[in-house]
Amino acid sequence: MTRRRGWPSGAPRAVVAMAAMASKRAASPTLATTTAALAPAWRAAVTELRAAILASNPAVTEHVKWNAPSLCDGGDDRVTFRFPPRGGVQLILHRGAKPKDTRGFRFVDPTGLIAWAAPDRGVVTFTQAAQLRARRADLVALVNAWLAATRGA
Questions:
Q1: Which one of 14, 33, 118, 153 is most buried, counting C-beta atoms within 10 A?
Q2: Using one digit for the tens of pLDDT, what is the confidence trace for 24-80?
Q3: How far is CA 28 from CA 22, 33, 35, 107, in A?
Q4: Rounded distance, CA 87 to CA 148, Å?
Q5: Which of 42, 64, 62, 43 is nearest to 53 (CA)?
């Protein structure tokens, strides 16, 4: 019997495909590994912010999306972190991956932190970890307001 890539030549394709999927899953990033590459000051600030948001709202869950932590409400992604290659941290406030009808949707940012990329997609950018730490309470309130505004949307 000849072997290819460790599988008998007669192995069913489904078995090979399932093994490949399991291997890919094992290599998927975890919440811990998504922040591991950040500079220590950024890693600490992001970890503190994530913990504060999760502690403030028991309905919020977290998973990895776009190789970064993403906060969910009711299983729907609503706020996703982004770590730009040149440094800094961004929070992307969105209503999911697919465009949604924006008629009737309105969100007022009392903090002035959001730069609007679309009527229902905002970006909060920090270039220094100290800025992120200083605005943590504002960010927690902003994220919770965003989650409430986008619930069921």
A1: 153
A2: 444 567 877 778 888 888 888 988 989 999 899 998 898 888 888 898 888 888 999
A3: 10, 9, 14, 34
A4: 30
A5: 62
User: Where would I find the beta strands (DSSP E) of 83-120?
Assistant: 89-93, 115-118
Length, in residues, of the chain: 153
Mean pLDDT of 135-144: 93
End-to-end alpha-carbon separation of the chain, Å? 56
Smallest CA-to-CA distance from 72 within 15, 46, 80 is with 80
Burial group, residue 103, by CB count within 10 angstroms (0-12, 13-18, 19+): exposed
42, amino acid identity: W
**pTM of this prediction?**
0.76
H/E element, 2: none
Distance from chain centroid for Cα 103: 25
